[in-house]
Amino acid sequence: MKAEEQIRTAFGPADPARDTTIAPPPVTPAQLIARAETAVAGSSRPLLPRRRQILLGGAAVAAAVVTAYALPRGSTGGAHVPSGPDNTAIGQVLLPVAYQFDTNPQPAAAQLRALAGRITDAPYDGRSGRYAYCHDKSWGTSVLSNEGHELRYVEERRRWTAPDGSGRSRLTTLAAEFTSEESRRYWERELPKFGHPPIPNETTTDIPPVAPAPTADPGEAARPTDRTQPPTDPTALATLLRAKYGASHATKWTTELYQRYVVPRQVRAQVLLTLANLDGFLWRGVATDRAGRKGVAISTTMTPPADSGDRNHYEYVLIFDERTGGLLAREATILTPRREPLSYTLILDSSRTDQFG
User: Fold this and answer.
1) Are 228 and 132 in contact (CB under 8 A)?
2) Is 104 exposed, middle or buried (0-12, 13-18, 19+ CB in 10 A)?
3) Distance from CA of residue 146 to its chain's centroid?
4) C-alpha distances in angstroms, 195 versus 47, 53, 90, 201, 274?
5) 204-228 pLDDT, tens per residue?
6) Where is region (Disordered) located (predicted)?
7) Residue 329 has what pLDDT?
8) CA-based, 20 to 30 A from 34: which of 26, 82, 129, 310?
9) What is the mean pLDDT of residues 195-204?
10) Any residues with CB less than 8 A from the CB of 332 and at least 6 apart, and which?
């Protein structure tokens, strides 16, 4: 019996909504989880305060936006720059990544193994320094109106991590953007009624050392004592990437790896080999990420369980640097009649340094 039916049975005649038909929500739980992926930090590092995803209607949504962040006056926010009634620049409409092989793609295993065998050094290979520095940019934290119109925030994060896990994280909210022209028009109309807190909005958090866990989680890879170094053992790396759960999970945790560590050449090659061993990845050929960098892409799809109530299909795309094998970007989309972007992450920089920025 479904939870809703159990609750109604328990209330019986006292149920105030007994004869009320509840409309389906604008999004399913699985969609909300997919949208939140880029806002979920790995379990091994401290979590920073995050905005919750909000599913509200009308004025309540706009009020929530005002208390959270800002739409910038005069900010471009991207290539498409419409202006609201008060001449506030709202932001661009996001489009899914375009790749070379849109139809009849081939399995990616052979191409991934070939790439792993020919990669060269990244600019940071051979550099030294106390801190691992990682810089990424993401689209995904969102506000959704009751009508299904979505507003996305663009966030940029820089992290400095010491061997004991301490360090600093700097999070900057850069702009607000949209998944459709209809959503852009909706928020362009609604937000000026409530005012705009300033963007960019920056928060810096100093992170204390990470205390050793009292017991090891068998589902987690054993982490090196030096928190700036990723696992180098193939089995430990596969565990870190959640490879046993399939290709779609591995795309998320591959991104987490590159957001958390300065990934050396040996590990970059092993990541590609781990992905090559998973069923479901397709070779998409040449692709360009949102930073304008050319790479090569693989994709995989995921269909939620039948009893989840989610009838959507999802696609996850990884774009790799063809020279170094490093991750450039990850995108998650809903496969509607058109591909609708859910979240996007760019890995912009990695290095070693002796100073905080």
Assistant:
1) yes
2) exposed
3) 23
4) 30, 20, 12, 16, 49
5) 999 999 876 555 556 665 666 888 9
6) 1-26, 193-232
7) 97
8) 82
9) 74
10) 34, 37, 251, 314, 315, 316, 317, 341, 342, 343, 344
Tokens standing for residue 212: 């050793």
Which tokens in the block code for residue 130? Answer: 């106390």
**Rounded CA gap, 50 and 332, in Å?**
20
For the segment 126-142, the average pLDDT, to the nearest whole number, is 90
State the Cα–Cα distance between residues 266 and 214, nearest whole angstrom.
Answer: 30
Q: Which two tokens stand for residue 6?
A: 């159990």
160: which strand partners? Answer: 133, 168
Q: Which two tokens stand for residue 163?
A: 């061997």
Asked whether residue 257 carries a pLDDT value surpassing 90, the answer given is yes
The CA distance from 94 to 92, in Å, is 6
Residue 141, amino acid: T
Give the list of residues 6+ apart from residue 70 with CB closer than 8 angstroms, or none.
Answer: 173, 176, 196, 197, 198, 199, 201
More confident residue, 19 or 326: 326
- Residue 95, exposed/middle/buried by CB under 10 A (0-12, 13-18, 19+)? middle
